[in-house]
# Entry
Amino acid sequence: MGPRRSAVRYTAPWCPSNQAAEFFGFYSTSAKFAGIAGPLIFGLVSQATGNSRFSIVALVIFFALGALILSKVDVEEGVRVAEEEEKEILG
# Structure
């Protein structure tokens, strides 16, 4: 519950208010997908290799890929674009 609240506080500033349902709907759906994909990949790798240590390595690779993708996000630019869109909507 804690990391989810933290992520919402991180997402809210660059989320235009007229698209908040879309942003948080996508966030919720992706969290549910991750809750299924993580254990599934863990189980598949564990079954394929016969060793759960390789499953941990597979999940660490996913975390590293996620960190790499997130490192490319320009938060300041996202906030700027969201603020511009807010101004257009509110007039």
